[in-house]
Amino acid sequence: MRLGAQFLPEKFDEYIASVRMAEQAGYEFAWLVDSQVLWEDVYVYLTHGLDSTERITFGTAVTNPLTRHATVTASFFATLAGLHPGRVALGIGRGDSSVRTMGLPPARTGQLEQYVRSLRPLLSAQTAKLDGADVRLRWLQQDPGVPIMMSGTGPRNLRLAGALADRVMLYVGVTPEAVQWAMRHVGEGARSAGRDPAELKVSILCAMHVSDDHEGAAAACRWAPAACANHIADLARNNPRHDMPEVMVRLLKAREAYDYYTGHLDSSAAHTAYLTTELIDDFAIAGPI
């Protein structure tokens, strides 16, 4: 098992100290949130994080097709990978707080697919078709080797990730029931594209807090199910005939209003108060090990 840690681009000095600590502790990935309204610029933090460490891989978890044009994303990640070979990954999703805070909906599956299909050639020193135009990064002479990770909660995006991504990030909780359900859809997508599902790299996004105090540890992880519930609600709204597992349905039924501005990814936010320890345990690793 390989471990990664997620970081918010804020409190710069604390961030640098934290990524160094993560590297020393053996973490292999440092994933940064891309949400330009709520936090500082992720590109700046990725760059300084890489400059301040020696081994750990840095990437977005996740960027999106709506606030970052494909050429901008490709140029940045190709540049960064040229400076730090083998230590850069590009995480992409449909967009959550980065777009909802501007009153916009997340990207549709078709938009996400087109974005990734455009990024592949751009990141490989090849020509991409963008809005009918042939576009390439003129300065890029060879493939810098930037793996693409795609996140997913619902079947469509999970299947898309299985078809296109180098790594899939599951955002469905940590129960065997939910993970197996998600992997079934990832596998379907992989096979539809002629890929072997067994060769895909898979990550699970969850909160983790190790402590002898189970209740206290769970309370520290409230942010994870509270945020995931927004994606589950979208899935239920866009696909009423969904087949999501019962653990996700339970969270959906308990879900209350969510305020991105006052406490996104914050376990102390008022909108996490409804979460019981049982619900949290479905979406986090909390307590003694």
Question: Would you kindly provide a written description of the structure presented here, covering whatever features stand out?
Answer:
With 289 residues, the protein is an alpha/beta fold. The chain is built from 12 helices and 11 strands. The chain has 2 domains: 4-209, TIM Barrel (Alpha-Beta Barrel), CATH 3.20.20; 210-289, no CATH class. The strands form 3 sheets. A 7-stranded parallel β-sheet has the order 1-2-3-4-7-8-9, with helices on one face. α6 (155-164) crosses α7.
Summarize this, please?
With 289 residues, the protein is an alpha/beta fold. It has helices spanning 12-24, 42-51, 70-83, 97-100, 109-123, 155-164, 176-192, 214-220, 223-238, 246-254, 260-263, 277-281; strands spanning 4-7, 29-32, 57-60, 88-92, 128-130, 133-135, 148-152, 167-170, 201-204, 207-210, 284-287.
- Helix tally equals 12
Distance between the termini: 15 Å
CATH topology of the largest domain: TIM Barrel
* Estimated share of beta-strand residues: 15-25%
- The secondary-structure element order is EHEHEHEHHEEEHEHEEHHHHHE
Feature tags:
289 residues, TIM Barrel, two-stranded antiparallel ribbon, seven-stranded parallel sheet, single chain, alpha/beta
List the helices and strands and how they pair.
Layout: E1 4-7, H1 12-24, E2 29-32, H2 42-51, E3 57-60, H3 70-83, E4 88-92, H4 97-100, H5 109-123, E5 128-130, E6 133-135, E7 148-152, H6 155-164, E8 167-170, H7 176-192, E9 201-204, E10 207-210, H8 214-220, H9 223-238, H10 246-254, H11 260-263, H12 277-281, E11 284-287
Parallel strand pairs: 1-2, 2-3, 3-4, 4-7, 7-8, 8-9, 10-11
Antiparallel strand pairs: 5-6
